[in-house]
């Protein structure tokens, strides 16, 4: 037997989760989707490792959305995000996308702490784009529904890959 | 900008994947499910971190299934697995469950290499149960459809938590 080397658990944002909530009254459960309502028509990576692999092999920037299903700010952003055809099309054409309710072991994905909702971009060179942020100084990677325009500008920024800056 | 510290990519089993295959002829995509056909009625963890968190907080063993959607051995096992009511009920009652198509950063989940399909159990103490294995000496954690009975016995073994051995 081997001891799993994971201090991960200690830094989990996790807390209150939606585990077990997807039960219908009839007792039949609705299968969980990978999109979790952020865009059913998009192709979602399941894990960060998978997302990085696809970002690198397809040379597309990765967008990581951290959220919680019982956080009103996450839900408000999700509604705007999933209904915005321009965002959805941009992602489908040019991004690898991943939504997470649990933190990963990579601390670079929480440059100024773990909170939701927050959106981080990762370049195909596997560099977290900490330079691409929203408008809140105390939570650099937070977006509110009113920030959709800024989010789109930031997506365009992320599309300019680091290699092309050389 | 911060460099993501991930040598992970080098050890990815990944290879040929199903990325982009879930497109219908009409152009409308079927939303991806977390179950990936291994049991739509079960509640699946999305990531290893999430699964460990639930295993610990609910004091239930974790079952991790590594598979690929274009691997005939994975598909054969999936069919038996998803149609076996006893297995599905056992999981729903007593296990946390996770299916992965990409390797994690935890090498303890590949005690004798990375191959699919393979099934590993993890105790709520976060100990990978390398002692619970199938019948193939060259691939200790592989199961074939004919091994369903052994898999059930192994699930019962995993249910005897390590703490209770003390």
Automatic annotation (TrEMBL), chains A, B:
Query: What is the first-listed, main subcellular location in coarse terms?
Result: endoplasmic reticulum
One GO cellular component term: extracellular region
Q: Where is the signal peptide?
A: 1-20
Q: At the top level of its lineage, which domain of life is listed?
A: Eukaryota
- One Pfam family of this chain: Thioredoxin_7
Specify whether Signal is a keyword of the entry. Answer: yes
Entry protein name: Anterior gradient protein 2 homolog
Which organism does this record belong to?
Cottoperca gobio
Gene symbol here is agr2
